[in-house]
Specification:
Length: 125
Amino acid sequence: MKLLGNIIWFLLGGILVAIEYFVASLIMFITIIGIPFGFQTMKLAGVALWPFNKKVIMTEKATGCLAIIMNIIWLVVGGVWIALTHLIFALIFYITIIGIPFGNQHMKLAGLALTPFGRKIINDN
């Protein structure tokens, strides 16, 4: 069932969000300071392609000074815009009963888009 959800997700906007993450990561790779941001957004692009069966957990590094600083920089540079994209897609999917699981995935990814550092993505079997 998760495979079917991922295929429908991919066709109904998952590819657009993944492209948005991918473009953000390419922009981040331009500078040396942006390389850690680029790697993190590449991970987020993978989650944006296939979000069903992925779980986001906080790591012990989440409260560290570096993670907080990097989350603030990311929030200003690109996190707000990608989170707004997720919120718009979530509202569109929440209109229908069938779209509620997809809206839930977009809400999960919106939180991840705001503060990606200090979080770990694991497979949820």
